[in-house]
């Protein structure tokens, strides 16, 4: 189970709260990336190291009905360490002139190893940033990744949380999706959208 869940986790190109802005990536070699930006304003663009610790599953959740609720694929304890360096994707871009981007944003404690419990579910999901907004054209995703606590550093580990970070409340983000599938739109409202009332577009403060 441990190896299977790790394979799913690292088999997706990225897991997104808001694709291209608030993403986490896990690679098979134990590396990855954490993104936190809004348009051209970057707060975090960091390499990370990760490893699995142990896994478990719940028979009750595994038996959930596909048509109504997500199916739990499993639960995994992992360790993530943010690295104070830009990922390779920043090479040759304007971001390469900001090698201290992450250190300028976060205190030293943010780069210490942290343990998390994650769940991976299969179902019909929209990007979490879109929950509560009505737009039938929103992308749908077959996988959801749920953390017990946010992979983004807590507010106490940001040097200047006032402004954008406080507005975005990034340290509250615990849910990400992956594996886009257009066919899932035909199955009705997304499983992670309890209310279809509201605005008509995905938005992050």
Care to describe what's here?
There is one protein chain. By secondary structure, the protein is mainly beta. The chain is built from four helices and eight strands. The protein has an eight-stranded antiparallel β-sheet with strand order 1-2-3-4-5-6-7-8. The radius of gyration is 17 Å and the shape is globular.
Protein traits:
205 residues; mainly beta; eight-stranded antiparallel beta sheet; 4 helices; 8 strands
The level of helicity is 10-25%
Broad shape: globular
SSE run: HEEEEHEHEEHE
Summed up, the helix count is 4
Briefly, what is this?
The chain has 205 residues and is mainly beta.
Give the topology, please.
Elements: H1 2-11, E1 15-18, E2 22-26, E3 31-38, E4 41-56, H2 59-62, E5 71-83, H3 101-105, E6 114-125, E7 141-147, H4 164-168, E8 175-180
Antiparallel strand pairs: 1-2, 2-3, 3-4, 4-5, 5-6, 6-7, 7-8
